[in-house]
Amino acid sequence: MTPPPAATAAISMRAVQKSYGTLEVLRGVDLDVQRGSIFALLGSNGAGKTTLVKILSTLLRADAGTATVNGYDVATHAADVRESISLTGQFAAVDEILTGRENLILIARLRHVNDPDAIADGLLARFSLTDAGSRKVAAYSGGMRRRLDIAMSLIGNPPLVFLDEPTTGLDPEARIEVWQTVEQLAHDGATVLLTTQYLDEAEQLADRIAILHRGTIIADGTLAELKQLLPPAKVEYVEKQPTLEEVFLSIVGDNGRNES
Questions:
Q1: How many domains does the chain have?
Q2: N or C: less crowded end of the chain, CB within 10 Å?
Q3: Within-domain flag for 124
Q4: What is the domain range of residue 35?
Q5: Is 171 contained in some domain?
Q6: Which CATH number is 66's domain given?
Q7: Looking at the domain assignment, is residue 100 inside a domain?
Q8: Rounded to two decimals, what is the model's pTM?
Q9: Which of 68-77, 134-143, 230-239, 242-251 has the highest mean pLDDT?
Q10: Per residue, what are the HEC states of the chain?
C-alpha cells in the first residue's frame, strides 16, 4: 500500500450519485467523517445507506461525484482503499463448522499476517470470546457471532471500519454487546462508519450523525446540534428536549414511512 495522502477527513464524499436504471438511489451526497470518530448514518429502508457504503468500500462505482477513504480516491486507488478498511455487513459471515478461533486463524492466513495463532488469541481476548474460542460457532449466540464477525474484519488493523446495520435481527442483549464492541473500536483509535435505522443506536454511539433521505443528506451534526433543529417543547415548569427519534421523524416527515 502506498502512503496515504495528507487528509483531515478519514472519509470524504462530494456530489456522489448512483442510479440503478431509472431508480435514483444517491442524488448528490456530500459527507465528511473525521478520523477517530464514530459516525452514524441514519435512514429508512431504501434510503441508500448500503449503496453509499458499497461505493466507499469499492464494491460499486459511483455514476458521478468523488469519494476518498483514508486519503485515497475510491475510483482510482481502489486497492489502497481496500487495504485501509474492514467491512461488516448486515449478517455475520462466519463459518459455523469451525470454532471461533479457527475462523480467526483462517482469515489471518488468507491475509498473510504474521503469527495467525497469536492474532486469533489476541482478538478472542479483546472481544471477550476466549472461553468460547474452542467451541464451534454453530453454538454461539447472535451477539457472539456478530462480535466474532467484527473481530475477523479487524485482522490486519485497518484504520477504518464500516459496519452496515450491524445489529439487524439481534435481541436487545446482543445489541448491547455489539454497542460495547463498537465503542471499544473507537477507543482503540479506529474510525467507525455505522449505518443503522435504529435511532437509539445512533444516539448511544455516535459522535456525529447524518440523516440520509431519498438519496441526499438532509441533516448532519452532533446529537446536540440536531436537537437544536426543533424548538424545545415547554410546559408550565419543565422544558422538554426532543429525542433523536423526534428530530428524525420531523425532518423526514411521513414520506419516510412509505419507503421500502
A1: 1
A2: C
A3: no
A4: 9-94+140-254
A5: yes
A6: 3.40.50.300
A7: no
A8: 0.79
A9: 68-77
A10: CCCCCCCCEEEEEEEEEEEECCEEEEEEEEEEEECCCEEEEECCCCCCHHHHHHHHCCCCCCCEEEEEECCEECCCCHHHHHHHEEEECCCCCCCCCCEHHHHHHHHHHHCCCCCHHHHHHHHHHHCCCCCCCCCEHHHCCHHHHHHHHHHHHCCCCCCEEEEECCCCCCCHHHHHHHHHHHHHHHHCCCEEEEEECCHHHHHHHCCEEEEEECCEEEEEECHHHHHCCCCCEECCCCEECCCHHHHHHHHHCHHHHHCC
